[in-house]
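Reopening this ticket.

The earlier resolution said the output was attached, but the attachment link was broken on my side. Pasting everything inline this time so it's all in one place.
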Amino acid sequence: MLKVVIADDEERVCQLIQYLVDWKTLEMEVVATVHNGADALAAIEQYHPHIVITDIKMPGISGLELIEASLKRNPELEYIVISGYKSFEYAKRAIQYGVSNYLLKPIDQEELNRTLREIRESIREKREQLSNGKKLKEFEEEHAANRRRAFIEAIIFNKDIGRDANLEEINREYCFHFQSGYFQTVVLKMDGLHEQTQENKLYVENTVGREIGKVLADCYEMTNIVHEEIFCVIINYPDRDYRISEKLKELLNSLLVQKDILKDFQVTIGMGEEGVTPQVLFKGIKAAKKAIDQRLILGTNRVIQGQYKSTNDFIDKELVSVFNHDFSEAIEIQDLGKMLEAIYELEEGIMADPGVTGYLIYQMCKEVVNVYLFALQKYSFPVQIIDNLFDKFHVEIHNYGSAKETFQYLRQVISETFERLKDEKDSQDKKPIKLAKQFIAENLEKPISLEIVSDKVGFNTAYFSTLFKRETGYNFSEYLFNCRVEKAKELLRDTNLSVAEICQKVGYNDVKHFTKKFTKFASLKPNEYRKLYS
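Inline output:
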């Protein structure tokens, strides 16, 4: 199937194009519809289509600019340009880019289908013209790239594949050209990239890949992949005279030029330990990642040497214990100020330790979120409304390049989510109190207890008692007594029922006891109240 991307800033035009063509019959598939040039460029990078149908005028990157940019990446890409402008200049520029398919709006169904059929036949002819040798070469290159990527992913995700293989076996199995010498894993982290547009991200990735290839071109072997906006690079070079540290500093300086182009762009390069066998690559990734984490302490825009030996990544138990107590207690009483204060004190305690590491800061921030979620569940907050919080936090927290920014992000997440949770919990808490009040009002003549009512609304007695006091301002027994007295007043004013009958209707069996309680509350005996207010 030939893959097609449709780009037009009017959604109805995209829908019309899809409707006018029997794609299955043409052996084509629309893999994406987008509404601006930047998204079109991203779709081309993602889906590698054979055909792009694009409007000439779109916000941001125009259709012509899109063609110019994408054809540099893939000269074989076929374009159909659609325009509402009968301008020779537009057509002339399109022709200069090798685009001969230029259709005017309104789109003619027959002309569009004919054009697509012609493009299909043209692609078929080009494919047939490829020599068997070229096809085989392309297949081999793709296979080699996939195998090399599989090896690097095994390093990143700590998989066993290739870990115990010797140099010759790795070269044969994973299509490398490693030679005897030194091996090292290097990680590049770009902070501020998550705030950039998709177009800028692609630009940065291409720039970084190009600069890595340029600076390390004289290695025996160098391969890199991008994983979650982090570049993982494995390097094989002749000997220690290769000056790998100096080359990485050169790479850093070439990338820092982007600071003048992209706002908040920062780079850190983490080095794993070097060794004389490929197995050091598996060990080095851990050291390189910890080196990247250490930018929270040392700062960004530098090369940091990591160490594989484990460091004392632990924190004072008393500091953690105090935080857990204060933080959980603040959640229980729903005091956001005290929650944030507990995080501030934890931050101060951690940063006061001269041996603190960036890795420890990340782990503690993640642990705070764990404690947060556990306490929310314990105190019956509706955590389902933030059920993806930890997964998102786990990724986003690594986008901040200093300890201060990292803790700020932690407090921001806690503040924003707790306000939502508190509002939702208040709304949920009010409903059972309303049901409880209704049940009490409708059953005053029956025996009523805190246990009976809490069971009726589905809460345990202790929690319901606290909730009831918070929402009504009275404890349960006070509220029940007030309801009974107010009902008795109503019956005394509006009916001719005897005091004994009224006593029964508000849940008392002993008239004498009822009279005593009523008199104390109303400062009048029941008969006196009736005479005065009936």
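Reporter confirms the inline version is readable. Residues 432 and 457 are 6 Å apart (CA to CA). The longest helix spans residues 403-442.
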